[in-house]
Predict the structure of Flagellar assembly factor FliW.
Amino acid sequence: MKIETKYLGEVEIQEETILHFESGIPSFLEEKQFVVLPFDETTPFLILQSVKTPELGFVVVSPFEFFPDYQVKLTDSTVDSLEIEKEADVLIYTILTVKEPFTNTTVNLQGPVIINTKINKAKQISLNDVNYHTKHLLMLQAVGKEG
């Protein structure tokens, strides 16, 4: 099927790649179907695109690309609601707030998107870890190395 996207125009997707968010995404509770699309083959960034609303697309990234020590402990209710049977079936993305210049871009480490890749169920959760916030500088480590 073809969908209109925020960043890539019209894109052909396979229905079996659609992620199902039973409760929507916070602030977008009516949005229950998304797909993950490559943003650009030269970057680690992806787009979490609504299937229903072309204007709704989030730039996401695996947090482990920029924060190798990042840890997520899933609650039993999250494991149950996403029907997760084993860790290998789980993908984690974090949503970016892209800013100009790009070095000011922030990442929401407190609210990762958890995906059970086996059955394409997904959910954005909120972590209680005080070390993670909604606006971490994505490039903090690179900036720190420059100075």
Summary: Helices lie at 76-81, 140-146. Residues 2-136 form a domain with the BH3618-like fold (CATH 2.30.290.10). The chain has one domain: 2-136.
